Each structure stands twice: as structure tokens, then as C-alpha cells.
Amino acid sequence: MLLQIFNSPIESGAQLFLLIVCILIGLGAGLSAIDIRSTLFKKDSEEDKH
Fold it and tell me: Can you tell me where the transmembrane regions are (predicted)?
């Protein structure tokens, strides 16, 4: 599906915009997942100490 999007005759600016959007979405999802993991592990470690 991504190959179809990038192979279709869109303006280079639109292709670059789509690529940037995909990268930002990926980074945002990765950072949020890291935040969730860190908060969960912090809660677990605090519970273990008590």
C-alpha cells in the first residue's frame, strides 16, 4: 500500500509531506509506548519496594 502511494504520480511536495507525517506518527507512537512502559515499570518497582 505504501509503495502504491509513493509510486503514484503525486507532486514531490505531497510525497515528502506524507513521508514526514508517517515518520512523526511513528515517533509519537514510539515515544508514547516508551512513556507507558516507563510509568508501568516505575509503579511496579515502587510496589516491590513496599
Answer: 12-34
